[in-house]
Structure formats: C-alpha cells, structure tokens
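Chains adopt folds. We examine one example:
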Amino acid sequence: MKVQPIMMVFRISCKAYKTRKKGKVEENFIELLDTFLFQSEIKEDLFVEKLFEVKKNKLAELGTSLLTDPEKNIKSLKEITEISKGEGHDVVKLGLLYFLTGFKDIIPGYRIRLPTEKELQMNVSKAVKKTWFYESTLLTTYKACVILQN
C-alpha cells in the first residue's frame, strides 16, 4: 500500500474526530472516506490506462525499429518479450501480436540452430559471429514467447 493514501485516510479520520468533538455525527467521516475511496479508484483506473498507453506506444516503436533493420535492432525482440511479461491481459496479448508479426517478417528462410560449444570456441569472422548472435536471439526470444503463451 502506498504511503500517501494512508496519510490521507489519517487526515480524514482526524477531521472526522474533530467534527465529532464539535457535536457533528459520525456520518461525515463515512462520507469523506467514501469520497476518498472513490477518488483513489478513479486515479488507479487512470493510472492503469496511462500505463497501457505507454506500453502500447513502446511496443509500436520497438516493432517499427525491428522491421526497419532487423539485424541492427534484434534486441528489440527481447524488449518486446519483457514488456509482454508485464501485468494485464491486454498488454500480454498486444505484445504477443507485435512479437509474432515482427518475427514472421524477420525469420530467415533456412533452418537455424544454436551454435555448439565446439563451434563457439572456433575462430570465426565478425560476420559469422553477427549471424550466430542474430539466430540465437531469434531462437531464445521465440522460446520465451512460447513459454509466455502458456
């Protein structure tokens, strides 16, 4: 629970106590508490909606950057997966849609696999290392996406 709402309830209860001392009924406290709870629910709903909008915009930005240059922005897949792990069914669903549409467009037409330990110890060119990184990122993020769906 946040500190600020607790302090507000404390202030409200103090006001109610003061009004009881002056002879007013306890109903003032109940009205103030109901008003406070209603306002905090509205603020929480607005916060959730704003957070969803921010995540939706971030997913759109990452998806666009991934499609413009997949080899350079391959780490966007990991970020999309991380955002999709967040709370909220809508965010997960939207993240999976972005992930799968982007993944469908950037996956190579040949069979890919993770390099073996022996292959990792070999001296290879920068282009091969870059290809291995690209392919391994595709595989690991796809695996995370499959786990996320379950």
Summary: Residues 66 and 73 are 5 Å apart (CA to CA). The helical segments are 3-21, 27-68, 75-84, 89-106, 117-121, 126-149. The two ends are 30 Å apart (CA to CA). Residues 5-10, 19-23 have pLDDT under 50 and may be disordered.
